[in-house]
């Protein structure tokens, strides 16, 4: 008796009329049986709270084509920022460069090129010409005048904790040719401790009375990185 009185007072006349989802029975009976849901449908692909989300200015909702079916979503016009295409761009460093040097000992200009570039190996060389002002300075030739100067650099990872380096410097002038070669091996003992060894060879074609002279030098250092 109390339930019928509450429905008569609280429910408007349209609530008693049959719903489109259940045309054969009154709305109150369909709701009580759970065959009709008054919740408005969700128009999002992912509905976290299963609630209806109001359309924004990029969404247009169409009417359902048949009773009981889910209202379809029309095509969404994406914002301008979302439709822009940003191509992936990762510029690589150049393999060639220019070489210039000016000091009290010499003036030189030339170019350099990296012939090999891999994660474990790097081979670079430089070549240029210039004028020597001070003899034998900076591992140079024995007289002032025009010179040609070249350098070769090699870096090779021979193990996980071992690095091999080699530098070859050659300078030639009108009187003699000088050569300097340095070979180094670095071993990482611990993350902060490195054992560095170098072997250096220097050759002067005009040394020892014109027959050529060669000097060697080696060093072993233990380096700690703070």
Automatic annotation (TrEMBL):
<dbReference type="InterPro" id="IPR007433">
    <property type="entry name" value="DUF481"/>
</dbReference>
<feature type="compositionally biased region" description="Polar residues">
    <location>
        <begin position="213"/>
        <end position="226"/>
    </location>
</feature>
<feature type="region of interest" description="Disordered">
    <location>
        <begin position="204"/>
        <end position="226"/>
    </location>
</feature>
<protein>
    <submittedName>
        <fullName>DUF481 domain-containing protein</fullName>
    </submittedName>
</protein>
<feature type="signal peptide">
    <location>
        <begin position="1"/>
        <end position="16"/>
    </location>
</feature>
<keyword id="KW-0732">Signal</keyword>
<dbReference type="Pfam" id="PF04338">
    <property type="entry name" value="DUF481"/>
</dbReference>
